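User: Structure please.
Assistant: Input sequence and predicted structure:
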Amino acid sequence: MQDLLRNLSPLLILCLALLGSVQAVAEPAVPAPGFTIAQLIKTLEKHFPAIRSGEGSLRSSDNLQSDLLASTNPNTVLETLGPPEALRSFVFSYDPGEERKLSNNRHWAGKIIRNALPDWREGKRWTHRATLQAEKAPGGPEISETAEGYRIAVSNADGRVTITVRPAAFTDTDPESLGISLSQLLAGLKDAFPERDEGMGSLIGGESGWISDRFFSDNAHAELETLGPADDLVGLRYLYALRDDHPEATADNRRYALTLVRNVFPDWAGADDWMNATIDKVAAEADDGASHVVIDHGPIRLRVRYFVGATAAIEVLIHPRDTFI
């Protein structure tokens, strides 16, 4: 028996070793964190000749380093968040007013996205289309896509086309509210909605216990409903009648709609233009069965449509993107 055990011992040792090696191979490798600066500017090194450590404007709750890479194109920069060998996110931006540099800037944007997300086959073409669209629509809506676990967003605000790439986990988590209070929502509308009927609104959704309040406009031809506590609203519905017999009230109520939208989206430079064009469009079509015209501004969704209740009206709904009220 002892001889048998002695003979088996080498075999057992070999088997155990093999099992150990199989387990080691089967365990997934720990992925490298984020990007590297060298990865982002591959083949573009001469256009981004220096890293200015700590001079970037990007910020994080855990105080990561933000660096700035100025380019050989004036007013074109790449900003990164995190140490150069483990970037969490980055922003590439340029001035669309410098027409002679536009072709270069679009090309660089596509290359940087291709370098960052090599498995996203449509990345370079998508970036080219998105930057062109943003250049033509200053203050317009954000254009976004998700690829390889990252959210890519293109916008044109404050005179710059900006491409932001960050982990989807940080941006796609469903927000629980609009992130504003009732007083912020009604800023500039001091006398427009003189009375608040607490608990008399019809909006529902989300957590049980949320209260829906109702407000009537000073001219009695518009109604605002809010959902959630006054210090952290969850959503809203605004409805104003299209009354040919009360043109002044209709004009005032339209202005209230624009103010409400600006207050929810204070960084959206083109809010008034988009709202005016959309209201004109849905009113001209006068189709109560038509779908809402929808725009996502970051994680918040704005929906506008023609609505027929007691009278023809414009309905505006604002709520977190992946919820409904």
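The radius of gyration is 27 Å.
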